[in-house]
Amino acid sequence: MNTSAPALEIKNLTKRYRNDVLALDGISFHVNRGDFYALLGPNGAGKSTTIGIICSLINKTAGEVNIYGKNIDYEFAEAKKMIGLVPQEFNFNSFEPIAEIVANQAGYYGIALAEARQRAEHVLNKLGLWEKKTDTPRQLSGGMKRRLMIARALVHDPQLLILDEPTAGVDIEIRRSMWKLLQDLNDDGRTIILTTHYLEEAEYLCKNVGIINQGKIIIDTSMRLLLDQLKKETFIFYLRDPLANIPRLDHGDTHKIDERTIEVTPNEHCTLNDIFTDLSQQNIAIVSMRNKANRLEELFIDLVMS
Ligand code: ADP
């Protein structure tokens, strides 16, 4: 294996669908080994097309894709082995026992049945599903089905795991446990790329981020630098007494959420201390406060709308 090549390298990738839609307009980016990379963008931006091409499910029009140094055109089988894909939709046979689902998947990678069964046991154990081995997907909870998708993607021990919206529509508890699982997989040295609509998820998990819009990469940077770009932060203040009117502050904008909750965005160069002073001058007592956790969301909207 080429030990210096990045986990994923995309050069001038173009996709024009038969209906003449230019879904990808010559994108280039790379993802280093061991990275946890978010691919973000609004609907129709080109994320699924990109993932489809990386996984050889969609033919590209032009450009180059290398996985751990293996070219998807010339070293197809080797490149394919390096990737585990967790698609958005459940696409397994709902009537097949889960241990068989996972073992059969290994068969697609040329792994003999006896070894495939061992591997299935290993990944199902790792994902806390082995005791359900004879159950069918229909018998699993939503969170377990998601883990089954991941187990199946891991059975051939890929170095690059790609997840398309892994937590779409799942409740907060399952989402948190998925985050923990994905972090563990990344800590084990696996490179992870995910697309998500939950920007909080990208902010929490990912080290680097690419934002795609209208078939072009418009941002490719570290999550930290991206967040630093957003100068303005918004805070939520929970107040002791109900407010009749929205207070006007000298050092920030306020927005009333309910009579005991306001949102405050300090003006540029103003500090939280200035805001506390403004509020106390108006005899407004604060019980608690938190940072409104949507900085990435705001930045994303700014980028895509501008
Ligand atoms: P995303 O995953 O970011 O929502 P997609 O990659 O699905 O974006 O879509 C990018 C563009 O390509 C969109 O304009 C979409 O309508 C178009 N598109 C996607 N799949 C097809 C297809 N099979 N045939 C024609 N156009 C497509």
Key features?
Alpha-Beta Plaits; 27% strand; binds adenosine-5'-diphosphate; alpha/beta; Rossmann fold; six-stranded mixed sheet; 14 strands; 306 residues
What can you see in these coordinates?
- This protein is an alpha/beta fold.
- It folds into 3 domains: 1-82 and 158-228, 3-Layer(aba) Sandwich (Rossmann fold), CATH 3.40.50.300; 94-155, no CATH class; 234-305, Alpha-Beta Plaits, CATH 3.30.70.
- The protein is built from 10 helices and 14 strands.
- It has helices at 47-54, 76-81, 98-107, 113-126, 142-154, 172-187, 199-205, 223-228, 272-281, 295-305; strands at 8-16, 22-31, 36-40, 62-67, 70-71, 83-86, 160-164, 191-195, 208-213, 216-222, 235-239, 252-258, 261-266, 286-291.
- The strands form 3 sheets. It has a 6-stranded mixed sheet, sandwiched between helices.
- Strand 4 (62-67) and strand 5 (70-71) form a beta hairpin.
- The longest helix is centred in the middle third of the chain and has 16 residues, at 172-187.
- The structure holds adenosine-5'-diphosphate.
- The site of adenosine-5'-diphosphate has 12 residues, from helix 1.
- CATH topology of the largest domain, by name, is Rossmann fold
Question: How many angstroms separate the termini?
Answer: 42 Å
Q: How many beta-strand runs?
A: 14
The structure class reads alpha/beta
Query: Quick one: overall form?
Result: globular
Average predicted confidence as pLDDT: 90
Order of strands across the widest beta sheet?
Answer: 6-7-8-3-9-10
Give the C-alpha Rg. 23 Å
How many domains is the backbone divided into?
Answer: 3
List the uncertain runs.
Answer: none
| Discrete helix count | 10
Report the portion of residues in β strands. 25-35%
CATH architecture term of the largest domain = 3-Layer(aba) Sandwich
Bound molecules: adenosine-5'-diphosphate
Task: Spell out the CATH superfamily of the largest domain.
Answer: P-loop containing nucleotide triphosphate hydrolases
> What summary fits the major beta sheet?
6 strands, mixed
- Residues in helix, %: 25-40%
